[in-house]
Amino acid sequence: MLKGRSHQVVGQISIKLQTHAPGILICTVIALSATFLSDHYGGPQLLYALLIGLSLHFLSQQAGNFVGINFCARTVLRFGVALLGIRISFGQLTHLGAHVGLVLVLAVCITIASGLLLARALRRPASEGLLSGGAVGICGASAAMAIASVLPPTRENERFTLIAVVGVTVLSTLAMVAYPLFLNWMAAPPVQSGIFLGSTIHDVAQVVAAGMMMGQEAGDTATVVKLFRVVLLLPVVMLIAFGYRKWLSPNDASQRTQKIPTLVPGFLIGFMVLVVLASTDWVPVVVTEMASSLSRWCLVIAIAAAGVKTSLGELAKLGWQPVLMLVTETLVIACFMLSAIFLLKIGQN
């Protein structure tokens, strides 16, 4: 009997591999291509993956590819977000000080609130305000994808997620160049420069690059500040999942067929477990580096999959409002942090 069951399990795994393999291979090849372009010609790896994916949208229309592509867009994404936790320890976070941590929490809250207000003013769904505000306030494309994974899986949300990923990646790249020039012009001290860069630039890679332009001290500070913002991904996504679970109306015909998000998504539990594990200092540096690299690859593959699933024609239907929302939210968090740093003297010894 056990032998028969084992053959059955092996058979089911074999069938799943056959159905998922074509789509997974497509997304992996796109990720490899994006990495090659980024390494040899510069530019953001995630943006390359997204643009190549969009150009290959026709591949998702073939039935044999869609299952694997969808697997990459959701399951691989969640695995990659969970692995982000291995880079963060409680020691890094407490080193910032309570006052800096409080200001960063306020900055994220204000940015998300501004997203909701803009969505209401522009007559857009509240989910778009949450997603754009979370992406700008926390960690760019990674946050956009993580928040999207607990929102109702509608075509509108999928399209807006792609716009948000493109927008925060482009804005983050522009900020990586413009903010260090601005801080040099202001003659800002290294620690304050690091706090500003880590709290206002959206993606981790651009934060590190901009910080290093300002020197080692500024670079280290910017990285720790950014990691603190990444930790805020956990409570924000949990609150959003809880909110949609509690208030998603069963009487709304447009929402009746939507899957209600789980209260605490498994990938967030994994994220927190890895943060706790990293805080124990039991994890070797080589394991941390491997996990961080794997996390990055998972996110690149997931964004490639999201690009393949979406057509440019569908993105165009969203109009100019998403761009206005992302730019405004970027200005909101930058102005708030400038006020905190230079008026309230945050980061001064």
Would you kindly provide a written description of the structure presented here, covering whatever features stand out?
By secondary structure, the protein is mainly α. It has one domain (23-342). It has helices at residues 2-41, 45-55, 63-83, 90-96, 98-121, 126-148, 155-186, 190-200, 204-213, 216-231, 233-247, 266-279, 285-309, 312-316, 321-342. α1 packs across α2, α6 packs across α11 and α8 (190-200) runs antiparallel to α9 (204-213). The protein is globular, with a radius of gyration of 20 Å.
Summary of the model, kept short:
The protein is mostly helical and 349 residues long. 79% of the residues lie in helices and 0% in strands.
